[in-house]
Fold:
Amino acid sequence: MTSEQKIGSGASETDGSAVEPTALRVLYVDGADPPPALSAADGVSVSMVPTAAAARERLATPGPIDCVVSEYDLPESDGIALLEAVRDDHPNLPFVLYTGSGNEAVASEAVGKGVTDYLPKEFGGERLRERVDRAVAATSVEAESGVTGERLRELTTAFPDVAFLVDATGRYLEVLSGPDAGDLETVEQERLVGKRFHDAFPDEKADRFLDHVRTTLETGAVETIEYRVETTDGGRWYEGRTAPLGDSIGGREAVVWVARDVTERRRDRRELAESRDELTRLTRINGLIYTIVGSLVGSASREEIERTVCEGLANSEFYQFAWIGGSWVSDERTNPSVVEGVDRAAVERLVQATSTRCGTENSFARVVAEDESVVVRDVADDDEILSDRERDIMLDIGMCSAVLVPLSYGTTNYGVLGISGEHPGTFSERELTALETLGGLVSFAIDAVKNRNLLLSDTAVELEFRVASGRSRFARLSAELDARFQLEGVVPVSDDRLLEYVTVEGASAETVADRLGDGGHSEAAKGNAVEAEEAIEGANHRIVTEDDVSLLEIELASSAVNKLLKAGAVVKSAEATDGVVRYVAEASADANVRSIVDTFRTAFPDSELVGKQEVDRPVHTATEFRRTLDADLTDKQRTALQTAYFGGYYEYPRTSTGEEVADSLGVSSPTLHQHLRAAQRKLVRTYLDQ
Structure:
């Protein structure tokens, strides 16, 4: 082996070829060959000598050396002695102690003597190449900027962004990382110095960065670039602002690259754009709903209402198709009444895959149980709301998302509105609110048409049902107590509360109240496996009057009267005697009688429809109402009512007291109040009986 060998990408000076002018020149001092990762690396020219004396001799001859790499254990000397000699003559020359025989003491002494870096050979040639690149780059910056690398790193503790010094070849000369900056996923920040863009990024991104650096140097102005990189903190977006450094480093021009993390800003910008898009969509959907609602005005039938709604939704740009199903029937399913935008058979097949049975795992069961909308934002990924069979059918007919909106008004359910979205993720909370508003208006319109047809029609359909004692608490009590129960009136208090006023004849009100409190079961009947549908636990009741004929106020969440009202009928009478209850209800002439009967039988499967007939319904005008009331009032009652009204007794606050009205009539206050109560009772009775 000669005293000096040239190996690497730069050719030997002794063979007459020129060394690459931009190559990194390394003097390797060791009896063993340098690792290939250094000697065979592109852009590196390695001169190898075996002794410290040969190294000093090489450094004294012309020709630059960019970095010395030395073993500690050298013939007739060691790496520390060589380091001291180098520092005396070349104080700024990078020196890396790369040794297989060092220890902590050697490392500590080397640091004290000014070694640039210390690396045990066990870390390998790749790490050595990185350390050499970093040492040379940092020394170049320090030498030509006048600021040491350590000082630069101290300055970054108060620097919020990440900054780099990058030369024209895309090589990192220095990294100034802010305290919260994440490392690149591929390269730690401390190991980035000396590397090039293509060492840290995919070729396409590295080429883009290099073009940006060259553009900055060509224009001499500040240039901006936005990009995404993977860091130890995950994927982050940065805005890079580059400016020419003004001085060359290592013979090359360089730029300062400041990278500001704009991930949150981009997220806010994206969310704002999405919010704007959603607001625009919602505005257009509200416009669609407004148009549909406007079309409902003047609809003459329920079918016309349903057809208008489904056509409007299905023909819009937002939804694939829409359909409406009637209220739940005895087979625990709904039947599609109107389907628009898709083959009817497809919706029928989907409905057949559902059940409204309590506890059943499918979308319809949830709508029925909660009387609330159900949204499926992604049919393919849903594993909570849909049954497997539902999902398979929905995917088969091309559904991406869906919503079911219950059509309920007051205590009456008119079915469900089903809508299929154009893409996954449809039906945001605000869009759902708009569609639920539409559902409420549709329910109101259906209810209004039903009532209008019932009120204005001179005919109606009268239905009579018979329920035996096995399913009705009042039927059972009538037999056990030998009593008679008569429904006097019904008051819907809220969507889920119904007050029924029932007279009792033949049994004490207190006895009936006690039996209602335990579910209507006698001691003998409590063990019966068949529990009455009406006998819900904790039924509320109040004794209004107790006499030969008593009056009870009863609140039931589930009763025959409630079922008939929910089906859209009007209960005209209900009487329980001898173990049987007979209900008489009226529906408009165009009502779906089968649906009413099926709904009633969901609670009372054994009930019988014993009568169905068309009856005349005379229309009562306002003149007839006044004539009926006038005939019912006595002269004194009419006079007391008129005097109190015109005297301001019914104003708030009152402009006349009861005593003042009584004085005007020349009667006592008790007499006045007796006449007023009688007149008011007749007025209310006449109104409610119409």
In short: Residues 10-19, 151-160, 520-533 have pLDDT under 50 and may be disordered. The first strand starts at residue 5 and ends at 8.
